[in-house]
Amino acid sequence: MTETLTGARITVRLLERQGIGLVTGYPGGAILPIYDALAQSTTIRHVLARHEQGAGFIAQGMARASGEVAVCLASSGPGATNLLTAIADAKLDSIPLVAITGQVPKAMIGTDAFQEVDTYGLTVPITKHNFLVSSAEELLEVIPRAFAIAASGRPGPVLIDIPKDVQNQAIEVAAWPAPGGRQLPPPAPGDDLAAAASLINAARRPLLYLGGGVIHSGAAAAAVDLAEKANLPTVMTLMALGAMPVDHPLSLGMLGMHGARYCNLALDECDLLIALGARFDDRATGKVAAFCPQAKIVHIDIDPAELDKIKTAHVGITADVGEALARLLPLVARNPRSAWVERIDQLKREFPQALPGLDDPRSHFGLIRTVAACLDDDAVIATDVGQHQMWVAQAYPLRRPRQWLTSGGLGTMGFGVPAAIGAALAAPQRTVVCFTGDGSILMNLQELVTAGEENVNIKIVLMNNAVLGLVHQQQTLFYGERLFASQFRALPDFCKAAQALGIAAVDLDAAANPCAALVEAIARPGPCLIHASIDAGEKVYPMVPPGAANRDMIGA
Amino acid sequence: MNAVSRNELKALRAVLEIDVNNHPGVMSHIVGLFARRACNVEGILCLPVGDGRQSRIWLLVNEDGRLAQMIRQVDKLEDVLAIRRHAGDHAVFAGLTDHFRP
Ligand SMILES: Cc1ncc(C[n+]2csc(CCOP(=O)(O)OP(=O)(O)O)c2C)c(N)n1
After folding, report:
1. Which end of chain A is more exposed for a tag (fewer CB within 10 A), N or C?
2. What distance lies between CA A56 and its chain's CA centroid?
């Protein structure tokens, strides 16, 4: 049956056909036709953020927690520019998003029209792909394709810029395209898998190096199977935490700049590094020339441009990690590898990760572990960016893929609160905790209003050291203790601010029994800010100084 | 170009032949990958091929240790159908000197 529909209605219908039940965004003149069509949808719920960056990170939280493509909307001009940081963040962490922006009418593009900005041009380097749609017909092709691109291969953000006249243009639609979905890449070449297996079987000191791609590919269980079968001690990037439970006997936790000493030292000794869905980021490798100096490298990644980019692989395989692992596993021999496993255990004993104050809930590590003790593995743990993020990465017992949401590649302060809201919207049955800092929370504080309005079950643990901790730490260690622009002279009363913005607040500083206060705050449904003061002098240790080799860690 | 001999050209330069979907924006996607690395594109030629739904872009670029990875990144772009690498003295740019006299 042929229907006459506007571009805006077509857009909404195509989103419905994609199975989208929830979108987030912020309206404005150039996207009002789509908002008007959205209002008439009976299946799509819209969550109104309080800033477009908030909308972008809410969508990211939905995508990171669920693994599904998430959608955010913004108007032209300032709406689009406000989205950019969240899109760039999604690009660097390979998060599947479809961002839809309104644009001024086609005839006005290029005239410096009101709220006109070159959204297409601005998003070329920060999207996986982008579209400027020039007719309503094109939407029928572009929207399913955008979903397919976002979800296929290495996931990423796709932007669709739709001029207002295209949204208003009515056309006859005779047939609907199939929804766009994830297309599988070609299988891993069998002889390459065989070559990888023989390197693994021959290695005496192999290490498995898991990156975020293992999470995206849904391959965490397969990676653990491989590790267990061949007794491969396993390191994880910040993005991969939870792929293997960090308390698994073979786990060495996070590698790199703030990894445990035993982890980085083990990398120094390995003779084979098996990199899965990882990209040898500088925060993970430290000085590249000194990274795994004795090791041959097997590298499996879905993105061919990652192979040989930083380190040349002896066996490089372009494939979906999950698919490759399923076929690699039978080729890999069982091997107790007792000497190497014993050496790893010895490194763990000799160079343990120092976690001082674990039983004091008023210390940073103690607070993190007390929060963990209130929760099970179903909880989702989001963070902002700073010392608190690294401490949580070091100390929280992450055990499940998609349990851990953090801004890795872009390291964006302000990520935490909206991402936690998005996770809670996508998984309403879970408790979502966001660890944040006094600097980061102020970057998207307005989203507390959204959290209150949606009554999402998020617990924001504010580790307040009254400084920009990570900057303070670098200035202390590497800039002759010249502290500049890193100490706040004015700080809000965060509990009152949270209450004023519509959510509950608990001040652990004032609690006679902080553990009891924490248990109660976490158990009570709905959004809550949990405020705790932290010593500004605490450092994230160990630390690889910028540019140094991982073995030259300082501290603890 | 006359300052540089053919052999030098061969060593210092590479020519890339890229088949793309012909629509506005393709060029900025491609040259953006070079620009972000401060990698100068020395020559560009582009014309539609066949019915005009596709076009072919020829790029003259400096030989650079990062070129192999850049080629993979170009290849990854949605609108790039194929990319081929040729020696720096490839004929495509050779006949153009007349149009580029100072
Ligand atoms: C948007 C943004 N601006 C600046 C930075 C640089 N930066 C990294 S960590 C940090 C300090 C974070 O302070 P806070 O949120 O209070 O956390 P803390 O380190 O004290 O735990 C800054 C300024 C950043 N990562 N993101």
Report:
1. N
2. 12
